[in-house]
Hints:
Two copies of one chain form a homodimer.
Chain A: H1 16-27, E1 31-32, H2 33-40, H3 44-56, E2 60-65, E3 75-79, E4 85-91, E5 95-102, E6 107-114, H4 121-136, H5 139-142, E7 145-152, E8 156-157, E9 162-163, H6 177-184, E10 188-193, H7 194-206, E11 213-218, E12 222-228, E13 231-232, H8 268-272, H9 274-283, H10 291-299, H11 303-327, E14 331-335, H12 343-356, H13 359-362, E15 366-369, H14 376-389, H15 392-396, H16 402-405
Parallel strand pairs in A: 4-7, 7-10, 11-14, 14-15
Antiparallel strand pairs in A: 1-3, 2-3, 4-5, 5-6, 8-9, 11-12, 12-13
Helix pairs in contact in A: 1-3, 2-3, 7-14, 10-11, 11-12
Amino acid sequence: xxxxxxxxxxxxxxxxxTAELLNIFRTTGPLTRADVSEHTxxxxxxxxxxxxxxxxxxxxxxxxxxxxxxxxxxxQFRFNxxxxxxxxxxxxxxxxxxxLCDLAGEVHRRVDAPVDIAAGPDVVLGEVERRFDQMLxxxxxxxxxxxxxxxxxxxxxxxxxxxVEPPIMTGWNGTRVPDRLGAHFDVAVFVENDVNAMALGxxxxxxxxxxxxxxxxxxxxxxxxxxxxxxxxxGAQGTAGDIGHxxxxxxxxxxxxxxxxxxxxxxxxxxxxxxxxxxxxATAGQPIETVDQxxxxxIFGDPLATSLLRDAGRVVGSSLAHxxxxxxxxxxxxxxxxxxxxxxxxxxxxxxxxxxxLPLATRDLQITRSKLDGDAGVIGLAHGxxxxxxxxxxxxxxxxxxxxxx
Amino acid sequence: xxxxxxxxxxxxxxxxxTAELLNIFRTTGPLTRADVSEHTxxxxxxxxxxxxxxxxxxxxxxxxxxxxxxxxxxxQFRFNxxxxxxxxxxxxxxxxxxxLCDLAGEVHRRVDAPVDIAAGPDVVLGEVERRFDQMLxxxxxxxxxxxxxxxxxxxxxxxxxxxVEPPIMTGWNGTRVPDRLGAHFDVAVFVENDVNAMALGxxxxxxxxxxxxxxxxxxxxxxxxxxxxxxxxxGAQGTAGDIGHxxxxxxxxxxxxxxxxxxxxxxxxxxxxxxxxxxxxATAGQPIETVDQxxxxxIFGDPLATSLLRDAGRVVGSSLAHxxxxxxxxxxxxxxxxxxxxxxxxxxxxxxxxxxxLPLATRDLQITRSKLDGDAGVIGLAHGxxxxxxxxxxxxxxxxxxxxxx
Lengths: 406, 406
């Protein structure tokens, strides 16, 4: 078992102003002492003592001198993301990606591993712990772990990191993930729904200026993560964006509403998800094993698979059209396996959005494929975790239950 | 013309800490100097100088002594909402409510007046100015105006207070409301979409602990205002929540999709709004003049009107079911004239939400009628405006373009 030291290893808390100063450096480029003074209005002595505290803690580092063109050269400082390590795991239904990131959310090591989410929390989280220990390797690195982030394919009560009535995660209902992982790694634990983590990853890494973004995951299941007013919208029970089990527009496909894996009839997933397409190909006498195989068939020009993907695009597009009117995002990022079919899937999706959303809401709307693909989740987790552990609330009063104060 | 003094009349800006202290008092009960010291961690001298500055500015006032049971009695202070006046006008398609509020958003005077929104900005805003001048009455009161808030029945670009492509507001497209009203009243001007203002009013006045709330306005038109993560969700173009022109669930009513007043076919409004019900009664040979008359017929037991309201509830309910899955609110407040038909309208609405939303999203969901009714808009405007003019950003650097910094 890794013996990881307590949060941040800052040898105690810092004061509010020092914590705020760190967050100024996190969001800007290099700054001189005079820049900080101008930005904050703090007295020179206050700037010096706070900045020195952060340099001494290793969270800021020297970044050379300003050029001499504007008066006397001055020492510049910048945030040092290498000061700590974040361990994150994006856990899906059948596979997971684990990553070791720095405090700026950059991925330094990554590993993919199979997992069976229905094996329950003991097996799955045990495997996560084992893989994290392997990634850390030596104890020196282990000592610099600042936090652990986990995403799961089901509803999570964010404040406590508890899994709440997940449809496909047998044995997980009520599991408080921080209790388990916090006992192994003695650091902050951050738990998020998988699609939320992906939405955050896309926004932070690819669209940092965009305050209203929708991430649509179209894989075995269908779901959405929502960035509104610049931050994740989770909702009262943590189910916001869970559009896979909303009522599908029925004109699109079957006359009789199909049974969904959630137990209801006629949900979006029951028409237009990866599992529904696998089912429909089997019904038509073309059995395949995986969603990826269905997408391969589309790419190789199979007419039935292509028609199913296009219909699926329209059904998901009807739901997306409604979301675009409700949320008025400026960017919709489409990820997941079905998006890999490109315009065969996105064509029907765009068709519905432009026909049915408010004209003003689609005027400047960008609908685009995910750029991060499989990394969106781990990058989003690392950013969310960095925000939490480096927040003024946490730096001034370090503790493990981050989410309560986030 | 009222000659109203510049923002706040604080004789200059206050520093960041003083502005933060004011906002602590705005959100708590009475506090002693020791309470403030404990809450903020500021040195006693800093607390004293900031608190004295706010008392001198009239923004804090003495509130007696603490009881002697816990040591020596100490002087308490509280926020003084009477220090300034806010003028707000909730402008609808055919009528408006104007109110004079204090800095805590409480309504002290109100007046209703007819208005024809299609008469254009010059006529309508001219009338608003005239009514505000009348409400202020004497110049002494005029001198204490801190801000003006306006809500309008169309999309508003919040950052600039500009009306953007409104469907029913002839002549308003591109109007920058603050330019006009700011020239008359030399104070901050805050412009908001009408349903957003109502959502904010309901949340602040009736559900202050609720962070995810949906306000559904069901009147002549249909629209929603969204509170997510505790604040208004406006979207990239300010059209978030505009569900009146989303694609209605077509099983519910007519076989042929009716033409909507927005020019599209088959929108929610084209089936289920006040104007659609007036249209359908006329088509059936029962012409009436107003939406209120349709609701009266329901209350007096007319079978056709009742059936139309129940169908309308189902159509709006289908759209609401989708929003509940997307946003996962804990409270849905239903206002507007159709809601006055009570369960004849709400019955169909609830039926659809409970049948079609995610079970987890409806487990603790409360669907309830508006408690504020006609005051929701002015109360929401007053709260939004108070937040803007008393924000640290505005108090430290007073100016008129609040929204940019909000």
